[in-house]
Task: inverse folding
């Protein structure tokens, strides 16, 4: 790719549409890494975007990107007034891109702290450290009021407890709505702890993406790329309670975000609808639920009969290839794989029980959250 072409593709959304398949995942990772900087009102530099394109094209590694970013700001001859913010955005975006590109993950409180350390090392002196004092933050969406965050003295204990509760939870038998509602409850509690002085939402986003992937859920990274500030404001509203003003925690905004993230729905995500005192909120919720139902109907209607039969054969169970073939009444394994199983996996409807070991001797297949939603639609 020529330098002129690379400059054109600094618009990562356009780049993602035309990139070769093996590069699209890197584009998606970079869009998320860059978009998450909006949470704190930060914008990355053009240098970061140009360097990211080199990584997407395979010219340099992600570690070389991070080293070049570090050297860029150390050796910069002239310094602009926004260099401090740009440097934070650039370096943290590079660190997020590295973490999201890695498959390794440990679902522990220590991992949550380590993600913060990896994201902000060299940016914040306190990277990876629990805040030693209680905090409050004036929130735009609350008209200047604050969420009540976790007590500094209890943070580590609360983190361990919330994560252990999630570890022990069994998703089997839950409806799609139940799965989404439970994940929203967990993420709401996780974020409310607010363990760090700064960088809590970016850390939470990376942790949640990696956690959901680790347990087999398909997630749309681009949603964080385009709606990171909405994600933060939705977390604020999910945790805000002020009975004197008749306000209770409202998780509906976060539910819409996660339905888009995990089901590919198209709920309208607007920050102004979350603003305390906004009169349009009730009407917005009503119209959104209608469009949500239509979204699942459209997805189900567009599937081939082979894929629909496969989804109905799996339901809420786990099945091997042989078990699925027996249920749908097929005997030709290559045809079953080509016209039923593989298309369902590509559409994000079915996943492996052991994704890191495709030839696992006890390999089975089950429906994703999106697949369960289509199953619910097909069985109505």
Result:
């Amino acid at each position: 790719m020529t330098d002129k072409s690379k400059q054109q593709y600094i618009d990562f959304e356009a780049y993602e549409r035309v990139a070769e398949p093996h590069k699209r995942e890197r584009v998606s990772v970079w869009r998320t890494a860059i978009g998450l900087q909006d949470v704190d009102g930060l914008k990355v530099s053009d240098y970061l975007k140009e360097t990211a394109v080199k990584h997407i094209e395979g010219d340099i590694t992600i570690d070389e990107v991070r080293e070049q970013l570090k050297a860029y700001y150390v050796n910069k001859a002239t310094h602009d007034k926004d260099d401090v913010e740009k440097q934070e955005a650039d370096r943290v975006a590079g660190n997020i891109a590295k973490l999201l590109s890695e498959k390794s993950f440990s679902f522990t409180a220590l991992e949550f702290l380590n993600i913060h350390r990896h994201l902000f090392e060299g940016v914040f002196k306190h990277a990876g450290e629990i805040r030693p004092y209680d905090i409050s933050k004036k929130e735009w969406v609350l008209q200047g009021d604050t969420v009540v965050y976790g007590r500094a003295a209890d943070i580590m204990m609360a983190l361990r407890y919330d994560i252990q509760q999630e570890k022990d939870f069994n998703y089997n038998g839950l409806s799609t709505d139940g799965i989404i509602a439970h994940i929203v409850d967990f993420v709401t509690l996780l974020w409310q702890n607010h363990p760090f002085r700064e960088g809590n939402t970016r850390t939470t986003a990376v942790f949640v993406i990696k956690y959901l992937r680790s347990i087999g859920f398909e997630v749309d990274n681009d949603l964080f790329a385009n709606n990171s500030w909405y994600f933060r404001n939705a977390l604020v509203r999910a945790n805000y309670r002020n009975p004197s003003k008749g306000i209770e925690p409202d998780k509906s905004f976060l539910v819409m975000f996660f339905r888009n993230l995990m089901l590919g729905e198209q709920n309208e995500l607007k920050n102004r609808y979350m603003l305390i005192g906004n009169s349009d909120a009730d009407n917005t919720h009503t119209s959104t639920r209608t469009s949500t139902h239509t979204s699942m109907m459209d997805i189900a209607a567009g599937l081939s009969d082979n894929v629909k039969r496969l989804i109905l054969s799996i339901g809420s169970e786990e099945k091997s290839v042989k078990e699925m073939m027996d249920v749908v009444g097929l005997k030709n394994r290559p045809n079953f794989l080509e016209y039923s199983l593989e298309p369902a996996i590509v559409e994000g409807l079915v996943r492996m029980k052991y994704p890191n070991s495709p030839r696992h001797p006890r390999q089975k297949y089950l429906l994703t959250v999106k697949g369960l939603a289509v199953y619910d639609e097909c069985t109505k």
